[in-house]
Structure formats: C-alpha cells, structure tokens
Design goal:
single chain; 7 helices; mainly alpha
C-alpha cells in the first residue's frame, strides 16, 4: 500500500473547506437552539424546534437529491459547453421556483399540521412561521448555486457564503436578548440566509441578478 501524493493533495484541497463549512452549519443549527433555550426558556425552544424541524427536513432531502442526482450530471457536462450552461441555468431556476413554492406552502400548511399533530400549545404566531419558512426557502434556493460550485470544485466559495449565516445568528441573538422576542431572532436568521444565498449565487454566476435573487 502507498499514497499517491497528487491524489492526497487534491483530496485535501477539496475537503478542508467542506469540513470547515460543516462546522459552520453545526454552529448555526445547534447554536440557535442553545441561544433560544438560554434566552427564552425550554418551553419556547420546544415549540420553535418543532416548526423549525418541519421546515428543515424537506430542504435537507432536496439538498441530498441535488448532490446525488444533479452534481454528477453537471460535472460531466462542464461549465463551458452549451449543454452545461443550459443545465446550470435550469438548476438555478428550478431551486429558485421551488423556494418560492415552499414558502407559500409551508406558511399555509405548517400551522395546520402543527395544530393537528402536537396541539395548540406548540402553535407559533404567523410572523414566526413566515420567517422560519423564509429562512428554509432561502436554504432550498441556495442549493442551486451550491450544487454548481461543487460541480466546479469550488468548495471555498461555499464556505464563504456560510459566514453570513453566523453573522445573522449573532445579530439575532443580540436582538432577542435585548427585546426578549423570538420574532427578532428568526427574522435576523432569515436575513443571514439571504446574504448567504446572495454570496453563493454571485460566486456561481456573477451579476446583478445574483444579488436580486433573495429579494422575493
């Protein structure tokens, strides 16, 4: 047995940004539960976590499907061919439309599902549900440019976008502690997701359109 230095170098160059990115994601998803539970109590955390998990699960499934099914096709097609360019545009538009549909669908159905499965004690105000839906929709939409960046081997660009998520988490934490209001926290988290999405979209396809994508 022996190590191929070139392959080992390629694995390291491609892998270390993804490892750091995983730590960012862990800090965001687990950190928000720590700060909500610490600032507002476990009862608020319990009701929030149910709604947040309902929003996160379909987004995670879509991400796994995109990486498993779309990434190999995009990588084989390349970015410079006409077919590759069309495929990349299709991926961006697909996840952009999916995010908008998810926002409307979740905002309408999540309160009914939560009430049916868990009871009125776990119901969230409409504003909180809407902001949770917005954050999840933006995560879903970001799957498009993230898949394009992965197909191009640009893991560092994905890592750069997630730093905005941490900024949103920090701003939301300060606002929630100062005002004792969960809505402030989830709104800041959604704005952080918008900044993260805009960063990834700009790096995947630079242009004014990339910065305007999160606005809807």
């Amino acid at each position: 047995l022996s190590f191929d230095k070139d392959i080992r170098r390629r694995l390291w160059v491609a892998g270390w940004p993804l490892a750091v990115n995983a730590l960012f994601l862990y800090a965001v998803f687990q950190g928000e539960r720590l700060v909500i539970g610490g600032a507002l109590g476990l009862a608020v955390l319990g009701s929030y976590a149910i709604t947040a998990q309902l929003a996160l699960l379909p987004v995670m499934i879509a991400g796994r499907l995109s990486i498993g099914l779309g990434l190999p096709v995009l990588a084989r097609a390349g970015a410079t061919t006409a077919r590759g360019a069309q495929l990349r545009q299709d991926v961006l538009q697909l996840f952009q439309a999916a995010g908008v549909l998810f926002w409307f669908g979740f905002a309408a159905l999540a309160p009914l599902v939560t009430l049916r499965l868990f009871g009125p004690a776990y119901a969230q105000p409409p504003a909180i549900v809407a902001w949770i839906a917005a954050a999840a929709a933006l995560r879903l939409q970001k799957t498009g440019p993230a898949t394009l960046l992965l197909a191009s081997g640009r893991a560092r660009d994905i890592m750069a976008g997630n730093s905005a998520r941490l900024a949103g988490l920090a701003a939301g934490t300060l606002g929630m502690i100062a005002l004792h209001d969960l809505t402030v926290f989830v709104a800041a988290a959604a704005l952080g997701e918008a900044a993260s999405f805009a960063t990834a979209a700009w790096r995947a396809a630079p242009g004014t359109t990339a910065l305007l994508l999160p606005l809807p």
